[in-house]
Amino acid sequence: MARAGVLKGTMATETKQKTPPAPPEATRSREERIAAWLKANQKLVAVAGSGILLVVLVTWFLSASAARKEAFAQAQLEQAWALQDAGNLPQSAAELQRIAAGYGGTNAALEARLSLNQTRLTMGQAQLAIDDLRPFVGSGPPSRFLVRGYTLLGAAQENLTLFSEAAISYARAAEVAEMDFQKADALLAAARAHVAAGQRDQALAALRRVVDEFSETAAGPVAELRLAELAAGA
Predict the structure, then answer these.
(1) How far apart are CA 29 and CA 170, in angstroms?
(2) Which terminus of the chain, N or C, has fewer Cβ atoms within 10 Å?
Protein backbone atom coordinates (compact mmCIF):
# COMPACT_ATOMS: atom_id res chain seq x y z
CA MET A 1 0.00 0.00 0.00
CA ALA A 2 2.76 2.39 0.89
CA ARG A 3 4.49 1.65 -2.38
CA ALA A 4 1.24 2.29 -4.30
CA GLY A 5 0.84 5.63 -2.53
CA VAL A 6 4.37 6.59 -3.40
CA LEU A 7 3.80 5.67 -7.04
CA LYS A 8 0.56 7.69 -7.15
CA GLY A 9 2.26 10.70 -5.66
CA THR A 10 5.12 10.34 -8.10
CA MET A 11 2.73 10.21 -11.07
CA ALA A 12 0.81 13.29 -9.85
CA THR A 13 4.06 15.16 -9.53
CA GLU A 14 5.11 14.14 -13.02
CA THR A 15 1.71 15.20 -14.38
CA LYS A 16 2.05 18.61 -12.79
CA GLN A 17 5.52 18.94 -14.18
CA LYS A 18 4.30 18.06 -17.67
CA THR A 19 1.69 20.93 -17.66
CA PRO A 20 3.22 23.64 -19.91
CA PRO A 21 3.76 26.97 -18.24
CA ALA A 22 2.01 30.11 -19.56
CA PRO A 23 4.02 31.57 -22.42
CA PRO A 24 5.95 34.71 -21.56
CA GLU A 25 4.40 38.02 -22.71
CA ALA A 26 6.97 38.50 -25.42
CA THR A 27 6.08 35.20 -27.12
CA ARG A 28 2.30 35.66 -27.09
CA SER A 29 0.55 36.82 -30.24
CA ARG A 30 -1.18 40.19 -30.44
CA GLU A 31 -4.57 38.47 -30.46
CA GLU A 32 -3.70 36.45 -27.36
CA ARG A 33 -2.56 39.53 -25.48
CA ILE A 34 -5.78 41.39 -26.40
CA ALA A 35 -7.92 38.42 -25.32
CA ALA A 36 -6.06 38.20 -22.03
CA TRP A 37 -6.43 41.90 -21.37
CA LEU A 38 -10.15 41.80 -22.12
CA LYS A 39 -10.61 38.87 -19.78
CA ALA A 40 -8.72 40.63 -17.01
CA ASN A 41 -10.61 43.89 -17.50
CA GLN A 42 -14.16 42.74 -18.13
CA LYS A 43 -15.74 45.39 -15.90
CA LEU A 44 -13.80 48.19 -17.56
CA VAL A 45 -14.79 46.90 -21.00
CA ALA A 46 -18.44 46.73 -19.96
CA VAL A 47 -18.37 50.31 -18.69
CA ALA A 48 -16.63 51.57 -21.84
CA GLY A 49 -19.11 49.71 -24.02
CA SER A 50 -21.99 51.30 -22.16
CA GLY A 51 -20.42 54.74 -22.68
CA ILE A 52 -19.98 54.19 -26.40
CA LEU A 53 -23.55 52.96 -26.69
CA LEU A 54 -24.76 56.07 -24.87
CA VAL A 55 -22.81 58.33 -27.25
CA VAL A 56 -24.27 56.51 -30.25
CA LEU A 57 -27.79 56.81 -28.88
CA VAL A 58 -27.41 60.52 -28.08
CA THR A 59 -25.93 61.19 -31.53
CA TRP A 60 -28.78 59.33 -33.19
CA PHE A 61 -31.38 61.17 -31.12
CA LEU A 62 -29.92 64.58 -31.95
CA SER A 63 -29.70 63.71 -35.63
CA ALA A 64 -33.27 62.45 -35.73
CA SER A 65 -34.47 65.49 -33.81
CA ALA A 66 -32.70 67.86 -36.21
CA ALA A 67 -34.20 66.04 -39.19
CA ARG A 68 -37.70 66.33 -37.72
CA LYS A 69 -37.14 70.02 -36.99
CA GLU A 70 -35.96 70.64 -40.56
CA ALA A 71 -38.90 68.75 -42.05
CA PHE A 72 -41.45 70.60 -39.94
CA ALA A 73 -39.88 73.98 -40.73
CA GLN A 74 -39.90 73.16 -44.44
CA ALA A 75 -43.60 72.29 -44.27
CA GLN A 76 -44.32 75.62 -42.57
CA LEU A 77 -42.23 77.41 -45.20
CA GLU A 78 -44.24 75.91 -48.03
CA GLN A 79 -47.44 77.10 -46.37
CA ALA A 80 -46.00 80.63 -46.17
CA TRP A 81 -45.11 80.47 -49.86
CA ALA A 82 -48.68 79.39 -50.61
CA LEU A 83 -49.88 82.58 -48.92
CA GLN A 84 -47.56 84.55 -51.20
CA ASP A 85 -48.96 82.82 -54.26
CA ALA A 86 -52.44 83.71 -53.07
CA GLY A 87 -51.45 87.38 -52.86
CA ASN A 88 -51.60 87.58 -49.05
CA LEU A 89 -48.18 89.19 -48.60
CA PRO A 90 -48.64 90.60 -45.08
CA GLN A 91 -49.72 87.23 -43.68
CA SER A 92 -46.95 85.50 -45.60
CA ALA A 93 -44.39 87.92 -44.19
CA ALA A 94 -45.64 87.25 -40.66
CA GLU A 95 -45.34 83.48 -41.16
CA LEU A 96 -41.87 83.79 -42.70
CA GLN A 97 -40.70 85.89 -39.78
CA ARG A 98 -42.04 83.31 -37.33
CA ILE A 99 -40.24 80.49 -39.13
CA ALA A 100 -36.96 82.42 -39.31
CA ALA A 101 -37.13 83.16 -35.57
CA GLY A 102 -38.44 79.81 -34.37
CA TYR A 103 -36.39 77.31 -36.39
CA GLY A 104 -32.86 78.67 -36.13
CA GLY A 105 -30.17 76.32 -37.35
CA THR A 106 -32.24 74.90 -40.19
CA ASN A 107 -31.93 75.59 -43.89
CA ALA A 108 -35.65 76.34 -43.93
CA ALA A 109 -35.11 79.20 -41.47
CA LEU A 110 -32.43 80.71 -43.71
CA GLU A 111 -34.70 80.32 -46.71
CA ALA A 112 -37.55 81.92 -44.78
CA ARG A 113 -35.42 84.91 -43.89
CA LEU A 114 -34.49 85.51 -47.51
CA SER A 115 -38.09 85.07 -48.65
CA LEU A 116 -39.19 87.47 -45.93
CA ASN A 117 -36.89 90.19 -47.22
CA GLN A 118 -37.92 89.53 -50.80
CA THR A 119 -41.50 90.05 -49.67
CA ARG A 120 -40.51 93.25 -47.89
CA LEU A 121 -39.03 94.57 -51.12
CA THR A 122 -42.25 93.75 -52.95
CA MET A 123 -44.20 95.63 -50.28
CA GLY A 124 -41.90 98.68 -50.54
CA GLN A 125 -40.13 98.07 -47.22
CA ALA A 126 -36.59 98.42 -48.55
CA GLN A 127 -35.09 99.92 -45.41
CA LEU A 128 -36.52 97.14 -43.26
CA ALA A 129 -34.98 94.62 -45.64
CA ILE A 130 -31.59 96.36 -45.48
CA ASP A 131 -31.66 96.38 -41.68
CA ASP A 132 -32.21 92.63 -41.63
CA LEU A 133 -30.01 91.61 -44.56
CA ARG A 134 -26.87 93.34 -43.29
CA PRO A 135 -26.59 91.14 -40.18
CA PHE A 136 -27.71 88.16 -42.25
CA VAL A 137 -24.79 88.36 -44.69
CA GLY A 138 -22.49 89.20 -41.79
CA SER A 139 -23.39 85.94 -40.06
CA GLY A 140 -21.68 83.93 -42.81
CA PRO A 141 -24.43 81.56 -43.98
CA PRO A 142 -23.66 78.86 -46.60
CA SER A 143 -22.73 80.18 -50.04
CA ARG A 144 -26.08 79.56 -51.71
CA PHE A 145 -27.81 81.68 -49.09
CA LEU A 146 -25.05 84.28 -48.93
CA VAL A 147 -25.22 84.99 -52.67
CA ARG A 148 -28.94 85.66 -52.48
CA GLY A 149 -28.50 87.70 -49.34
CA TYR A 150 -26.04 90.07 -51.01
CA THR A 151 -28.21 90.22 -54.15
CA LEU A 152 -31.30 91.16 -52.15
CA LEU A 153 -29.28 93.69 -50.16
CA GLY A 154 -28.11 95.29 -53.40
CA ALA A 155 -31.68 95.42 -54.72
CA ALA A 156 -32.92 97.06 -51.52
CA GLN A 157 -30.12 99.63 -51.69
CA GLU A 158 -30.95 100.39 -55.31
CA ASN A 159 -34.57 100.94 -54.33
CA LEU A 160 -33.39 103.63 -51.92
CA THR A 161 -31.03 105.11 -54.58
CA LEU A 162 -27.97 103.98 -52.61
CA PHE A 163 -26.30 103.04 -55.86
CA SER A 164 -22.65 102.97 -54.73
CA GLU A 165 -23.56 100.70 -51.81
CA ALA A 166 -25.65 98.52 -54.10
CA ALA A 167 -22.70 98.07 -56.48
CA ILE A 168 -20.56 96.87 -53.57
CA SER A 169 -23.22 94.38 -52.46
CA TYR A 170 -23.57 92.99 -55.98
CA ALA A 171 -19.80 92.71 -56.31
CA ARG A 172 -19.67 90.72 -53.09
CA ALA A 173 -22.40 88.45 -54.40
CA ALA A 174 -20.18 87.78 -57.42
CA GLU A 175 -17.23 87.02 -55.14
CA VAL A 176 -19.01 84.40 -53.04
CA ALA A 177 -21.00 82.82 -55.88
CA GLU A 178 -19.95 79.34 -56.95
CA MET A 179 -21.74 79.11 -60.31
CA ASP A 180 -20.63 81.09 -63.36
CA PHE A 181 -24.13 82.30 -64.19
CA GLN A 182 -24.50 83.65 -60.64
CA LYS A 183 -21.22 85.52 -60.90
CA ALA A 184 -22.16 86.96 -64.29
CA ASP A 185 -25.62 88.07 -63.17
CA ALA A 186 -24.20 89.74 -60.07
CA LEU A 187 -21.58 91.58 -62.13
CA LEU A 188 -24.27 92.82 -64.52
CA ALA A 189 -26.21 94.16 -61.56
CA ALA A 190 -23.05 95.78 -60.18
CA ALA A 191 -22.44 97.46 -63.54
CA ARG A 192 -25.99 98.81 -63.58
CA ALA A 193 -25.54 100.25 -60.07
CA HIS A 194 -22.18 101.77 -61.03
CA VAL A 195 -23.80 103.50 -64.01
CA ALA A 196 -26.57 104.87 -61.80
CA ALA A 197 -23.92 106.13 -59.37
CA GLY A 198 -22.02 107.84 -62.20
CA GLN A 199 -19.11 105.41 -61.88
CA ARG A 200 -18.56 104.70 -65.56
CA ASP A 201 -15.09 103.17 -65.26
CA GLN A 202 -16.20 100.69 -62.62
CA ALA A 203 -19.21 99.78 -64.75
CA LEU A 204 -16.99 99.14 -67.77
CA ALA A 205 -14.67 96.95 -65.69
CA ALA A 206 -17.57 94.81 -64.44
CA LEU A 207 -19.00 94.40 -67.94
CA ARG A 208 -15.63 93.52 -69.46
CA ARG A 209 -15.16 90.85 -66.83
CA VAL A 210 -18.48 89.29 -67.81
CA VAL A 211 -17.48 89.30 -71.47
CA ASP A 212 -13.97 87.96 -70.78
CA GLU A 213 -14.79 85.31 -68.18
CA PHE A 214 -18.45 84.41 -68.55
CA SER A 215 -19.27 84.94 -72.22
CA GLU A 216 -20.96 81.52 -72.44
CA THR A 217 -23.58 82.46 -69.87
CA ALA A 218 -26.83 84.25 -70.73
CA ALA A 219 -25.33 87.42 -69.29
CA GLY A 220 -22.50 87.44 -71.85
CA PRO A 221 -24.45 88.96 -74.81
CA VAL A 222 -26.17 91.42 -72.46
CA ALA A 223 -22.79 92.61 -71.19
CA GLU A 224 -21.54 93.09 -74.75
CA LEU A 225 -24.61 95.18 -75.59
CA ARG A 226 -24.19 97.35 -72.52
CA LEU A 227 -20.52 97.84 -73.25
CA ALA A 228 -21.44 99.12 -76.71
CA GLU A 229 -24.07 101.43 -75.23
CA LEU A 230 -21.58 102.88 -72.74
CA ALA A 231 -19.01 103.38 -75.48
CA ALA A 232 -21.60 105.13 -77.66
CA GLY A 233 -22.59 107.32 -74.76
CA ALA A 234 -18.99 108.31 -74.18
Answers:
(1) 66
(2) N
What tens digit of pLDDT does each residue of 3-48 get? 445 444 544 444 445 555 555 555 556 666 666 766 777 766 566 6
Q: How far is CA 9 from CA 1, 6, 14, 19, in A?
A: 12, 5, 9, 16
Q: How far apart are CA 4 and CA 126, in angstroms?
A: 112
Q: How far apart are CA 55 and CA 63, in angstroms?
A: 12
How far apart, in whole angstroms, are the C-alpha atoms of residue 69 and residue 108? Answer: 10
Determine the Cα–Cα distance for residues 83 and 227; give it in Å rounded to an integer. 41
In angstroms, the CA 223 to CA 188 distance is: 7
Q: At 115, which amino acid appears?
A: S
| Closest alpha carbon to 183 in 154, 158, 206, 166 | 206
pLDDT of 142-198, one tens digit each?
999 999 999 999 999 999 999 999 999 999 999 999 999 999 999 999 999 999 999
